[in-house]
Amino acid sequence: MVVTLSGNPAACAVGYEILVAPLIRKLQGGLTDIVTVNAVCINGYPLSTNRSRRFLRGRLVFKRDRWEVEVLPGQKPSMLCSLLDCNALIELPAGHAPVTAGANLSVIVLYGSSFFDSRQPF
Fold first, then answer.
1. What is the C-alpha to C-alpha distance for residues 81 and 85, in angstroms, rounded to an integer?
2. Count of domains in the chain?
3. H or E segment at 27?
4. pLDDT tens digits for range 10-50
5. What is residue 23's three-state secondary structure?
6. Alpha-carbon distance 65 to 50, whole Å?
C-alpha cells in the first residue's frame, strides 16, 4: 500500500491525521473512529469564503463545563508553528464564513492528545 500526502508540512500533518492515521489504526485492529466534539471558539480567524472543506489547527480545552477551542496562529500549509500546541482540528465546511469568537464549531480531537489518557467527557 502506498499513501501520498501533501508536500507542505502542516498540510501533510492534517492529511495524515484525517486519512492515514485511521487507516493504520484499522490495520492494527484499533479504534478507527474520528472523535468530534462541539466547542466554543475563544478567538476569531479571518477566513475568506472557501470553496472547499478546511481544517484549522487548534488547541482544545475543557473548562467551565464546556469544550473551548482556540484557533492557533500560523495557519498556512507551510507553517509548522501551529502544530506545536495543536491537539485538535477545527473542521470548516465549504463556504464557511470567517470564524468569530463565541462561534460553535465542530472539532476533531487528535489521537495521542492528553484527552485520550484522561477522564474528560466526550
1. 8
2. 1
3. helix 21-27
4. 888 889 999 998 898 889 998 778 889 999 999 989 877 66
5. helix
6. 32
